[in-house]
Amino acid sequence: MSENAAEKPDVRVVRTGHRTYHAENAAGATLEIGHGPGLWSPGDLLKAALIGCNALSAEARLEHGLGENFEMTGRVASTYLKDENRISELDVELVPKFGDMTPEMETELREKALAAIERYCTIGRTLDHGIVRGAAIVRED
C-alpha cells in the first residue's frame, strides 16, 4: 500500500509547525489539521467525512422530494473511549426542512434517503465493514 501512496497520493500533508499540518487533496482543496483554534482535528475530519458522505448520498432523494433549493443542516455526535484512545460510536443526524409535507410523505422520503445513505455512503460502509490500513515512514531524497 505504501508504494501506491507514494505514486499517486489522494491527500498530501506538509508539516507547518508543532502538531500542525496543511493538507491538500487531488482536487486542490486544502485544510489545516491539528489541535487548536482554526484547526481540524483528525477526529473532526472523520466526523466531517461521515456526515458529508451521508448528506451527499441522501441529497438526490431529498432534492427530488423537497426541491432543488431545499435547506438542510446536520450534526454528528460521538462517543470517545479514552482508555482505548478510539471513537466507539458516531451518530449522524441530517435535518432537512420538510416544509408542509404530510407525515406520510415525510416518512416515505426519510426512508428513501436513509436507504440511499446505506447504499451509497462509502465512508459509512467502510466504517461498518472495517478497513485494512497501513503506515510507513520512508526516506525521500
Structure characterization notes:
The chain is of the alpha+beta class and about 140 residues long. It folds into 2 domains: about 1-40, no CATH class; about 40-130, 2-Layer Sandwich (GMP Synthetase, Chain A, domain 3), CATH 3.30.300. It is built from 4 helices and 5 strands, in the order αβββαββαα. The strands form 2 sheets. The protein has a 3-stranded antiparallel β-sheet, with no helix packed on it. The chain has a two-stranded antiparallel sheet with strand order 4-5. The two termini are about 20 Å apart. The mean pLDDT is about 95.
How much helix, percentage-wise, in residues? 40-55%
Unreliable spans are none
* Secondary structure: number of strands: 5
Q: How much strand?
A: 25-35%
Q: Count every helix, treating DSSP H or I runs of 4 or more residues as helices.
A: 4
Cα distance spanning the termini: 20 Å
The largest sheet, given as strand count, sense and whether it forms a barrel, is: 3 strands, antiparallel
Order of helices and strands: HEEEHEEHH
Mean pLDDT: 94
CATH architecture of the largest domain, by name, is 2-Layer Sandwich
CATH class of the largest domain: Alpha Beta
Say what the CATH topology of the largest domain is.
GMP Synthetase, Chain A, domain 3
Radius of gyration: 19 Å
- CATH homologous superfamily caption of the largest domain: K homology (KH) domain
**Structural domain tally:** 2
